[in-house]
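Sequence only, no structure available. Ideas?
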Amino acid sequence: MVDDHPIIIEGYQNTLMATKKENQTLVIDTANTCDAANILMQRASKERPYDVCFFDISLPASEDGQITSGEDLAKISRTILPNAKVIILTMFNESYRIHSIVKEINPDGFLIKSDLTSSELAEAFQHILVDPPYYSSTVSNFLNKSVINDIYVDEINRKILHLLSKGIKTRSLTEYINLSMSAIEKRKKQLKILFSIADGKDETLIQEARNKGFL
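Reply:
I predicted one. Tokens follow.
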């Protein structure tokens, strides 16, 4: 379980331990940062793979800046823990962000914290073990609606947004991303079109990306 708020993880743990079935044994590792979570997953992949991974989306980035969110961690888990069920729990309830996460990760469970009760968490957990996926009501409602302006931001574009939000200048982005300056500029231009940035400013792009839950 990965969340940057220990009290939330404690609540998840208590709920699952209190509602587990008699034939189930739960061993739960926890992490509060991307680096700590990555270390646990890498170790588990070589020793005893996890059956289920819970990821919050908004997390402190790794020290090297390569892992910026729970979304990145979920992608890593898909590669090194291919049999693990991936459950996303997040405060983000914006349709653009939800669609992006579903496209990128296709999670076995997707729960919005504002929807969540202890009984729903317990129900979702048992359902996902047997017959995934399980999506909370907000997620299901968004996915059932046709979204006209469906913004899709890939991994490289999210990294560009993250670096810009940290104050990295465009001219320095090639130090962090293996692309030419012209390719990076082209991606920035596409991002500004996607987010309807009329004034062309990076600051406005970052603010709009943050408003829509991409940062």
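DSSP finds nine helices and four strands in the chain.
Hope that gets you unstuck.
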